[in-house]
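notes to self, project folder thing:

trying the whole complex as one job this time. last attempt i did each chain seperately and stitching them together was a nightmare. two parts in total, labels are on each line so i dont mix them up again. if this works i'll redo the older ones the same way
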Amino acid sequence: MKITIRALMGACALSALATAAFAETTITVATVNNGDMVRMQGLMDEFYKANPDIKVEWVTLEENVLRQKVTTDIATKGGQYDVMTIGTYEAPIWGKQGWLLPLDFPASYDVDDLLPAIRNGLTVDGKLYAAPFYGESSMIMYRTDLMAEAGLTMPAEPTWDDVKAAAKAMTNKDKEIYGICLRGKAGWGENMAFLSAMANSYGAKWFDMDWKPQFDGGPWKETLTDYLDLMTNYGPPGASNNGFNENLALFQQGHCGMWIDATVAASFVTNPKDSAVADKVGFALAPNKAGVAKHGNWLWAWNLAIPAGTQKADAALKFVEWATSKEYTALVASKEGWANVPPGTRTSLYENPEYQKVPFAAMTLNSINAADPTHPTVDEVPYVGVQFVAIPEFQGIGTAVGQQFSAALAGTTSADDALAAAQSLTTREMTKAGYIK
Amino acid sequence: MARAVTPRRKALVTVLAWTIGLALFFPILWTVILSFKTEGDAIASPLTVLTTPFTLESYHVVQDRSNYFLHFWNSVVISLGSTLFALVVAIPAAWAMAFVPGPKTKDLLMWMLSTKMMPAVGVLVPIYLLFRDLGLLDSRIGLVVVLMLMNLPIVVWMLYTYFREIPGEILEAARMDGATLKDELIHVLTPMAVPGIASTLLLNVILAWNEAFWTLQLTTSKAAPLTTFIAGYSSPEGLFYAKLSAASTLAIAPILILGWFSQKQLVRGLTFGAVK
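result (full assembly):
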């Protein structure tokens, strides 16, 4: 009997050892549902070839659900995820909180190759807390044929006056062609991303150095009035419900003369499979008000970060390194072509002669370089972020202000009332949060 | 005396019923139609949508990218498990409240219902921390417990209303014949209440199937039910209506079929106690 038990125990020990030798580390990666991320899921075989001991489990979620889930998990140190996809908004806040592990890549990763504008937004106290997977700015996409018909040419760096003139000339409501399509749907990452960036180009800002909201100032009033003027006269009907996807569909179907939005859209609108105007699209830098040094273009990147609660930091780092490396870019290019590589993260990509042939490559780079998250406005401000303010309270405040401005676009409130409401609600929240003493 | 139903009145009521029925069903129908379109067609104006060709493209994409059967199975286990668990707790509770009410029974019932009025997000962090410490995050058993607790007030209320319609004398008679409490519950009350229990079960399976707060927050991959499956197909940058519709159609199909076959019980469950 004893012998049997011993033999059994021995067998158990042996099998345990054997399992240990072949142990796989499974890491859970939370990500948003966008083309570049989905493409990576299809290319994982290459990663497994180089790292047979690591298995990656994907959790793909809608942006807002993802943000809510990873925030809960990281704040409670739940440890459900080993790699998280986070935006440029979260990276500095979470890095400062100590919720993320600093990323120490080997020299071969070439950290200095990351675009400075993007890298700065992800660095806290000299440490990189997230690795950019793809980066974007915003720019003007316009219909070259409609501009030619109107007898206009788009300057490479147009002002808002140029944009207004072009919108007026291209609008033909009988043919359902609207001079300009802009975001109107309320949300901090929806209309407020556009309007905050536009405000920067009018010399406006969210807060002064004492964190006092600035909606009662002249520049914000000018921004909102011009925006409403453009959209009511030359915009599509029902624009207060339009976000990125709605405008994308309108542009692809030929209903927009101009669209100012994420540079990522360039690959969609120039894709003949989905876009009826693929060969008639030109690009220009996001506008500024004549005489204002800042342009109305934002800066955003989806990044991979490792939460401090993970038990599998080594495997997670290996994955992040692979997914954001030059080699991954080359892999995508070889399988899917240069137009499909994740844009906006590395200098070397834009120096690549093959990539320079992509029609929107140069303008994307110029737009990214023209945005500076650490100095987003004309005047000095106490915050980081171009189209957002990198403080935890901003999501709530930004969405509430966005609702006011969206209502003004829908015509249910006036520009003055919307600005007054924005001023008072922001003052209230900032006082409550302790920024305003 | 029943009121005479004129043919005109009958026609009017029929038209009205059909209109309301179609209006309620329309969003589901539209989802199903969009799921058979390409992304570009799906976001086009409604009239164009009806004239463009149908395609299975989105279903192929969804099939390629997700493990539907894993999510489906998780949904089945979670919704059925939580409902059965809730019934086990609720049957004795409803028995006590219906047949041996105390002075505070009404208050207790109201208090139970009031817990449903609290926003779920208010207890998200405490529950998340408990789950983390008990190792229940991303586990089916954890979700079964949470959804059982969430739906318990409704289950108790439904059973209570049903039990009250059963004459107490029958139970008394059973007691006279020497039935113990256990016998009374299992052999007398439960068989008599089968229709009520069945409709409670069905309604709660549907509620648990559609639950999309806790199931999204407390799971990642292994225990993720169909709600997470749907949530993966909405995209901030890029068209997604067709794929999202395909995923939604796949997610609601099983429960829709279940609902179709059990209409009678469901309607009875929702209306008993309403007309006396």
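what i see at first glance: The longest helix of chain B spans residues 68-99.
need to look closer tmrw
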